[in-house]
């Protein structure tokens, strides 16, 4: 697991090969546009004891530090849930050590799973371009992915494909992009597949479920073992911005984009089953609120929903939506919906409110499943949420 290629891959570079010095072949790159060069080395090495050794090249820096969050949860789950500031209190800043090779070194063990890490050189946050990086927080950031669940790693199984599709949106009057996962069998068959529309969270984008969530590898492994049905997955950007006559942008409706713009495009280009019981939507955090509006606002189109760590939790009526009719009859709801799966990190401040929203509905007999996972508001929770959700979808007994 420690040498699995998935740990260092990004969507910009699938296999960033680094050449060890002891092979006699020294690959070098130029530094800062000058004639100076330095050896290309692996800047994130995963160790057998569960730690990771990081390097950052900057021989002229006077001080380099690494900021990251520990996953040992020093406080009780209830303390985290009552005080969101506990989340930031788990961040630590540790000094890195400059070696003769011009690289700054550090070894950390923040716990298994996905972690954002921040390199700080002389007080300024920088991107380590030789280490794994992705998009989050409306920004590029480095990460480490300490082995946790083998299903988010590469294994010798049939692999699906990820395709970027560009379509016109009448809602925004702009072109939009979505990423589409097709299972390995899609290219070799003529049958139709069920579809899952998967949404990211706040400050993320349409790539995050594949870059940070490793959703394609998760699906490949589950499908290969027969634990998940083959399906097509569509990831859209959750930010729907419409340009006004003054040149400013105002927020539009994601459900309008998906239903009126994206779904017709996808169903025309891909072999998609259009039965509502063969459609699902899921999302994390902000995306959880998006898919709740999408599915519960359009039950004639969807019969499956997964809501992970939603900031809105699970109200049936708010200022801008009213699902009270859908939730007025438990028997009718249960007949209409196949999978309603709600999750949250057990140390997430959203946990208590989510369970409080759900409890009266569950007591009335609504078939809504809730699952808590170890963790806070983070990818470690959302990966397991997605894994358990897709395993429930599109089973033959749901037809």
From TrEMBL:
SUPFAM superfamilies associated with the record: alpha/beta-Hydrolases
Signal peptide annotation: none
Annotated GO MF terms: acyltransferase activity, transferring groups other than amino-acyl groups
Domain of life of the native organism: Bacteria
Protein name: Putative esterase
A Pfam family this chain is assigned to: Esterase
